[in-house]
Amino acid sequence: MKKNFLYFLVALFTQMGFAQSDLSWRGYFSYNEIKDVSESTTAIYAASENALFSQNRTTGLIKTINTIDGLSGQTISSLYHSATFNKTIVGYENGLIIAINETDGSMLNVVDIISKQLPSNIKKINHFMEFEGIVYVSCDFGIVQFNLATMQFGDTYFIGDNGAEIIVNQTALFNGYIYAATNSGIKRAGVSNKNLIDYRQWETIAQGNWSSIETFETDLFAINGSGTIHKYNSVSNSFTGLITLAQPAVDMRAKANYLIVSTLNTIYIYNRQMALVRQINASQIPDITASFTCATIIEETVFIGTKEHGLLTSSLSSAVAFENLTPIGPSRNNIFSLQATPNSLWTVYGDYTSDYNPYALDSYGVSKLTESGWLNIPYEKVLGAKSMTRITVNPSNEKEVYASSFFSGLLKIENDEPKILYNQTNSSLESLNFVGPDYIDIRINGAAFDKSGNLWITNSRIKNGLKVLRSNGQWQSYAMDNILKSPNDNNFGTIAIDKNGTKWLSTSGDGVVGFNEIANKFKKITIGPDTGNLPVSDVRTVALDTRNQLWIGTTKGLRVLSNVGNFQTDDQMKANPIIIVEDNLPQELLYEQFITDIAVDGANNKWIGTADSGLFLISPNGQETKYHFTINNSPLPSNVINDIDINSATGEVFIATAKGLVSFKGVSTAANDDLSSAYVYPNPVRPEYQGTVKIAGLLDRANIKITDIEGNLVYETTAAGGTIEWDTTAFGKYKVASGVYMIFISAQDGVETKVKKVMIIR
């Protein structure tokens, strides 16, 4: 799609990044899963799943870095800060290395390991060890040299038997030798040896699987796979068991005259004599169930990385007091579904596979973002609701929220507090009835409010698959066995309700099902030229646009129903593909794409998410692809798009991916009912401002004319939605001069008008 795609130009920080001059992105990442930590004399550095943060120990200032700043969305596996070069080195599971110059913030994307002719599953970076300006990178295939001065790779050491690949977990320098802890023994070679690429220069001094090796003061210590700390004996050239841990070690490092060993449940801190001076157990940390990943020490403070609760600190003294330094964010990066309102954003983390299997069940809570920050409601407070896959806010009362659980029922949240879990005991919701009477599995997914305040809910794999919770608290069920081929095998995706009150349900085996309550009638759009014209019967999402069209996202492409009003009159409704012309050849838009979600913005553009191809922004009629965002040309952390929603008041498009939440700050806000709330921002426009002037709070198709103070017309346009932008030029020719400019706004019919002013200072 060469002609219809407008791609981002990838232009850069000093070496790498994304140009953001006219496209505004924001990141909302979770920093809770700590992969590694490093330190300088003044700062602590922490790597989460795919983002970094640091704290200046003098000022307390916390700085975050994520894909918006140029990081990859891939999974981080190792972190190292070089105080000598003031550079932070980030290693990834796929072999990528990103070197960050802390002086100017520039980043270098190093892909040499990714490019190596090796199986992709053995390129993980496990550890960095610096010596004389060279970082020795421990990988799942061997050791690689990386020069911090030239920022280039040197030699690669394949040190397995006969030069084979071998997993190197950690290296250490001791008495002129490089020691490597591998899954096939501890190996060593002279660091000054110029021929270390020859595997025969590496001798094996201990057999077995070794997770860690570290130089501590004048000794060398290593830990084997079973969790025994060994000390090296230079006389016998062997390792002797010293301390047996209760669990295998996940990390070992020597810092601030201490040897710190981390296991899943315990941090052990030893002094120079290998006496235990502090033991931190996970059970000592109040209010959370912690699993440790690593730990380090700066002066007298211990920094502890955890799997789900971020970075904790504690004094090295025996006093048991902990502080959490983690930047506030959502609970997890893999947000499965979200809903934006003018004042908040709600997210849930439960999921299911591509064939709607929710197992293994997820035990995650719910998160809410407002101007005051993130509120994370933990699983312990959601009344046992597992695998929550949708979140639905009452448009008439933002304090009333419902979370759909694809196993436990429907959770009602009031004033940010979970209040009721609706299930088979207190509602019309039903469990799968073909497993057995004692097995409860209530699969609630898509839900939507109608204009009367009734909540319509889909209940998968049962006969009465459509439910409604009336605004008066009463429940009602609708049988679907006459419309669905096999109700017990059917799963529901999303639901949309049009202006006529017709409910449009996406199904896994019967395409789209429409239901009108007044007519008490079901109709179906499915595969086949005479039965709906869908490419496949598995529909994942439906969305209504401002022209009464139904956009249908399937696992094999896109279809559009031209007018939902035809539900009452057409015996068989038919959806059609959008045909575009590429290189003089007609072809189907988004042909064969697995479409996960569709959102419609205030200008009737379509934001379309896919299972593995990123995000598309399509014009109202589908004939123009305005943007195709991927991990290669945008800050998207993943090409797997789980969900999309749009804040109708601000136009901010929230994109939930498998690797994190980002947003695109557009200007396509929903149209207003009148011009009473029309406003201009920024105002005044100061010399340092480089952006556009926004005129918001508009009626759809309102006419906007901008003149100078003498009445000379400098700009005119028609609104598509609730906001327009002016680049402060006279019809795109030249920047207007300093002064006051009049903005005349009128409705399409001319009945309602509004006049605003904006001051421009050059």
From TrEMBL:
Domain of life the protein comes from:
Bacteria
Q: Which UniProt keywords apply?
A: Signal
Q: Which SUPFAM superfamilies match?
A: NHL repeat
InterPro entries in alphabetical order: PorZ_N, Secre_tail, WD40/YVTN_repeat-like_dom_sf
Show which residues constitute the signal peptide.
1-19
Presence of the UniProt keyword Transport in the record: no
Q: Which Pfam families match?
A: PorZ_N_b_propeller (PF21544)
**In what residue span(s) does the PorZ N-terminal beta-propeller domain sit?**
44-203
This chain's protein is named T9SS type A sorting domain-containing protein
What organism does the record attribute this protein to? Answer: Flavobacterium caseinilyticum
Q: Give the taxonomic lineage as stored in the record.
A: Bacteria, Pseudomonadati, Bacteroidota, Flavobacteriia, Flavobacteriales
